[in-house]
Design goal:
The chain is mainly α. The chain has two domains: about 15-180 and about 275-320; about 180-260, no CATH class. Helix content is about 60%, strand content about 5%. It has eight helices and five strands. The radius of gyration is 29 Å and the shape is elongated.
Length: about 325
Amino acid sequence: MRISFSPAPLEPATTKKEIWAWYSYAFASEAYVVVALTSFIPITLETIASEQGHLYGTNEPCISRPNTTETATADERPRCMISFGRLEMDTASFVMYLTSLAVLLQALTVVSISAMADHGSYRKKQLIVFSAVGAIATMLIGAVPFVWMAGALSVIANVSFGAGIVCFNAYLPLLVRNVDHIRHQREQIVRLENEIEIQSGHPVQGTSDDIGLDLTHDLEPIHRALLVNQEQPGQTLPDNAPADIEQRKRLLAEMSDQLNEDKGHLMGQISAKGFASGYFGGIVLLLDFGGSFLQRSLEFGSSKDLDENCVWKITAKGTAHYG
């Protein structure tokens, strides 16, 4: 028979402050995706690669190549190459290779830490560590002297971001299940299951969630009535209480379905608001840069060429200019 009292540590009820803290992280993380992953990092990496690269088949630096005519096609323009020992690659493909490597490592990392993030006691520490590592790596990308260092930092930043998002999303079920009305529903379901087990003498094959609940306080009146032994004379159940165990099991199933529906609705609501605030933060940051990142990111997708002595510069203050 299942024990009524949970051995897990009690979890406090979710507060508005905790919900807003979740929103604030979503605000920052989605802004990182919109600005850093799609604009800042690719532009910076290709700029560094072009500055240190050479024209295909020559030792001439890419940024000092002669001007091409307006009638020259993309195939006629010399390609800018970056060398890693004996390996050479087009600077236009450099970012794509790094992204592919980062996605592979990110997948391995996510699989490795997802269980700890969902059920472990190091969720908060992991979130802080991955966020700090990712932020520091991103800030150093434009400061390192070699392109391979910038590439390695971009991979570290990308992997750290993915791992941090796993830990961040692991908080959502915890927050939802401890909202006041959800906690109340969970308590009622767990108590009803316990009462059915006591009366039937058999464990209930349910999926109740009693993690972190305090079930030591007094039972609700209807549940006290359910514990009444019907074989004792003079004992009657209230009109709104099920008359037998099968009816109680059906009631239990209905309550469980309602709980799952309410949890799903609340989780979707919180998640949608969080990610909406994040994309709003990204737009605000793009506007703060005067639209330069947005304009260059659009150009970046259609053209990989650099004009003579004209590259994107990322200053120490984080602003960007072309020239």
